[in-house]
Every structure is written in C-alpha cells, then in structure tokens.
Amino acid sequence: MSTAQTWVADFAAREPGLAGADVPWLAAMRRRAIDRFAAEGWPTPKIESWRHTSLATLEQQAFLPANEVDAAALAQEVRKGEPGHWLVFVDGKYKPELSDIGVLPAGAQIGTLLQALVDSPDEVQDGFGTESLGSSTAALNLALASDGAVIRLARGVVLEQPVHLLFITASAQAASFSRNLISADTGSQATIVEHYVGQGSSATLTNTVTRAKLAADARITHVKLQQESEQAFHLGALDVEQGKSSVFNSHSMSFGARLARHEIATTFNGQRCETLLNGLYYVDGRRHVDHHTVIGHAQPHGVSREYYRGILTDMARGVFGGRILVSPGADGTDAVQRSDSLLLSRMAKADARPELEIYADDVKCAHGATVGQIDENSLFYLRARGLDEVHARNILTYAFAAQALERIELPSLRQRVAHAIRALLPGGTSLGELA
Hints:
By secondary structure, this protein is α/β, with parallel strands linked by helices.
C-alpha cells in the first residue's frame, strides 16, 4: 500500500468488521479520522516535527492481511515465566490462550478494547481521544484500530505486579493497529509494560497509540521495549493527561525496526505534577530511530525530567526532538531536558533539537544536547589498568547505556532491558558477566 487513497480503500473494506462498528460515536469518529488521513497523507519532512524523518520507504511497501500464525513459542520465550498480568496480542488480535491476566485486586480491571466497546462503550469514549490529536499516523490508527488493552484502576488501587502488554508481529508483511487506554483514579499505582517483538524478516507495520489519564496523586510507570525485526516499521504515540500531584514515568527503549518513530506527550492539568521521560536507543546498519516529545507545563509547580541516550553505529541515524512548553501562570516550573548520543562509527549521524518555550517568569528550566565519540581520557584510564582497547571500548559503551537503565526502578524490568541492550552491544557476553 503506497498511497493514502489505498489506505482509504482498505478502511472501507474493513469498516464493517472493526471493533465498535455499531457504536455511533466511534463509527463517526473513525470516518472523520480516515478523512483527515486522506487529506494529509503520511507526514513528510516538510512538517517541522518530521524534518529529519522520511516515510517515503514505508509508502512504497505493500502490506497484506494477517494470517493465523503460531506465535506460542515466541510468546513463551519473551515471558520466560516472569510474574505479572499478561495480555498477548498477535498481529493486533488478542490471544487469550497465550495470555494470563491472573488475580486482580478489587477495583482493577484489565481487558481488551474489543470487549470494552461491547460492555461499556460510553466509558471508553472518555479516554479514547479524537481524530484531531497527534499526527496523521495517529488518525490512521484511530480509523483502523482493531484491538488493544484497556486498564482501569479505581481509587487507591495498587497493582503489586506489572501489567505486560505483549504485541507480536507474526505474519509476513502484516500491518497492525492497536490502541491502548489507561485510566488511573485518585491515588492508584501501577507499572505497565508495552513489549513489541516480531518474527520473520519481511517488512511489517506497527501503528500503535496509547492514551493515559491520571487523576490526582496517581502514579503510573510506563515501559516501552521495542524489539521488532530489522525490516519492521514502528510508529508509536503515547499521550498522557496528568491530574494534580500525579507522577508519570516513561521509559522508551528502542532496539529494533528499520524505522521507529516514538511520539511521547504529557500535559500537566493540575498543580505539582511530576514526570520523567527516559529513553535509550541502539541503531546499526541503516536503521533510523526518532523520539519526539512534548511536555506541557500548564499548571504551577510542575517538575519534569527528560533524558534520552542513543548509541549509533554503521550508517544509522538517531533523531531527538523535545519541546517543553511552560504556559502562562505555570510559575514554579522546574524542568530539565537533555539528549546525549554516542557515535561508534564515522558514518553514523545524530540530530538533536531540544526546545524550551516559556511564558511564565518564576521558572527554573535547562536543556542541552551532546553528540560525540568515546572519551579518549576514559579510554586511556581503563587501558592504563590493564584492559585491552576492545574491552575498554565495550565497557565505556555499556556504561553510557547504563545511565538510562538505572532510572528504571523495578529490578526485573531493569534486568530485562539490560539483557536486551547487552545482546546488541559489542562484547555482550563479557558485559553480562561484568553487570
């Protein structure tokens, strides 16, 4: 499918069988969403926020309907017996036989979008979003979203174990569209993991949107681990609304896909909100990773911390575009934004554009970006203590990544991500022994 009109035709064929096709508000919104995508098409570098990322190669790909492919072995490999509440989706469809939601405390609900649109469509509407939000890729997701996870936490509910949302792309040349909704009432807490993996070597498309609403004093940690195949295209968006004194922590770990774009946005709708946006990516070959973030300090005394790190080798490219917007009246804002990129080859390229847009006076804001190679003084220090150059470089590269890993609080998740990045870095076996 190479043009917007092809996707419009695909929508027309799928529309009667889409989730919530008989829900009036959703059916109307889907049609407005596909009309928007038809008018705008895929984002192009002419759009400022997409200046360094082109989807021209994606437009040339042909995607096919998903087949019934056995993904049980891959699901079991990813899970590795790790405890938690597991929902598994294969090519965008929920697979109950591979899932294990487990026992939930009173007031916690974990299910699928497909079922929620049958049981309580009016409740879904509150957090579903509209066709005008995000880029045209998000509008296409809204039009074609077939399923996803719906997580609702009542007042004061605390989930002791993480919720794992495992998305497997199994069919060759498949395109999947998932939409996840998270609602956290006052004082609730949870850790939610989105894990994207693929099997096979053909080009695939994952277009995913996650929307979260946090009430006062809620605390949500969100971990996204992207490990799809080297020919995959991944377009993801995370959109968060925070109530008074809520805390939202995001960890975006991007280690796969031919092209990956992660859009992350949070808005402080109450005073004294806190957020941490933490990211780590590794790209090799000719792969491309783009993180685009927006933090909206709309109320006073908000605190935000934003740290993104990239490791690039071969002819790979990494992009970071971050915007912190401090609205009028958002006095007492405390914001820090930083992007650091480590180049392991002369042909690798990193683009960073941190931005501060401030309309309040009493604020404390800082931003910065670095792009460079391994520090020669650090390399000399390790070699002077008996390490050969290769081993010393490997240790310094892992140490660069470890600063992002250390911000993941839950040990089991930190170890999972550490294992994933060590498997990619040079000297991974020895790094594992060192860690």
